[in-house]
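Q: What structure does this chain adopt?
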Amino acid sequence: MFETTASLQSGPAGALHGVDDDALARAAANGDRRAYESIYRRHAPRLYALIWRICGRHEARAQDVLQETFLRAWRALPGFRFESALGTWLQRLAVNAALMEVRGRGGRDDRDDGDDALEALPGTARCVGTGMDLERAIAALPPRARAVLVLYEIEGWTHQEIAEELGMAVGSSKAQLHRARGLLRGWLGDPA
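A:
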């Protein structure tokens, strides 16, 4: 198991620095936990940000989904075919896990952080004087509209990719994006 990583450079505290993702993935697929830890440390912050947005800023849910993502990755890594970048593959696993969490809630988006739902706030006053930020507004979107917005606007996915991942038509992805943008404009006080 460790013969694979003999040529990998070990840095402080056993972390592997300067090693590309493919080499780390191959070593981790052969059971090298140090290589897998390096993969985790390299990709977890970005994946967490993505998951956190899809999960509506629910920290505990996002942490659970992140852990589920890396558990799935550990199990599936021996079958990774290197047809895409490791980061892209991990991102797909993270999106799938986050969407399963959202679906598992049956579309409910219970607020556990004490924020009032934005829908209850009147017109443009929602943003003015409340310190409402874009992240809170995105978190208040309906789950499917939020997922499409995050994947399209933040992650740069195409509508085709979103449609395939979410199991919807391309037109539905476009409609959800339009809906999300419209809600955000209304909530944040932009009449255009």
